[in-house]
Amino acid sequence: MKQIILVGIFSLCSLVSLTAKEISKPAAPYATFDKLWIDYNVVEDGVKGMRIHVKFTAYEMLNLDAYLAIYFEYDDEIGGYLKDKNSKYNSSAGEVAVYSSIKPLYNPAVYNDLAVFMPYGEFELEPGQYDLAMDVKLIYKTGGVISKLTTHYFEYTEPRSTTTSGGEPANKITATYKDMWVEYDVYENNQKGMKVHAKFSVSGMKNVEGYLAVYFETKEGQRLKSDVTGYKSTSGQLAAYKSIIPGFDQTDYNDLAVFIPYSAFNLTTGKHDIKMDADLIYKEGGMIQHLNYHEFWISK
User: Fold this and answer.
1) Residue 199 structural domain
2) Do both 214 and 112 map to the same domain?
3) What sign does the dihedral 182-183-185-186 (CA atoms) show?
4) How many Å from the N-terminal Cα to the C-terminal Cα in the chain?
5) What are phi and psi of 263, to 5 degrees?
6) Which of 112, 157, 172, 258 is a Cys-bridge partner for 242, taking CB atoms 3.0 to 4.6 Å apart?
7) What pTM does this model have?
8) Which CATH number belongs to the domain containing residue 98 in this structure?
9) Residues 93 and 137 both lie in one domain
């Protein structure tokens, strides 16, 4: 009888000891993603590129040395990560990447706008148009993934020359965004849809053909696909276009409108949180300047 009691006491002590160890074990670091947005055609120290902004929250990372890491990959039949050639913006595995170091001082730590600059030239691509994606993660300074934050898809054009088809230097064209608004449940050519209005001005684009391009993606950055003629990009992304040929060195567009029918949205039944990406592009392809993002809800 005494042996049984002793065994029972020993088992209970072991359980209490194990429970105490489990309670004292530190929680693993992790992060939750909120959103990502991009400023295109930004110039830093005389270098043109994109500024990538990320909003996220880091947990269990107090005083932990880490990096926001953004890797770049092909989102087409090529596949795989872009390979670095000059050892400037690269990962230890030789992939094109850009980093921003962090060391949270709070738990949790909210990063409302952690920005990192990526020069266009560091993609090191041949002239042409590419479907690319950003693989965004938090990693330990010593290596290893803490959390994957998101994958963001975008189109990139490596120019063939420094001039446009109109003969103007591409880097002299600038646009100033002013406003953007949407009319819902509009009818055009017997189709029900939405009309997107943009107000902006352009400089240095006289007689250069271009488009106001409105691309559609989920709030998380997943591009919506389309097979509807007239409402898709060359890569098959759902898009709507309005052609422009500015007649002056500085041209103001106070209300440039583009229509897209609801039927062009290939969505499942339900309510969807969608984002518009409004850009000014050349007629032959290639970004002139990003204008604005606009989020909205659509039900199917």
Assistant:
1) 170-299
2) no
3) negative
4) 72
5) -65, -20
6) 258
7) 0.57
8) 2.60.40
9) yes
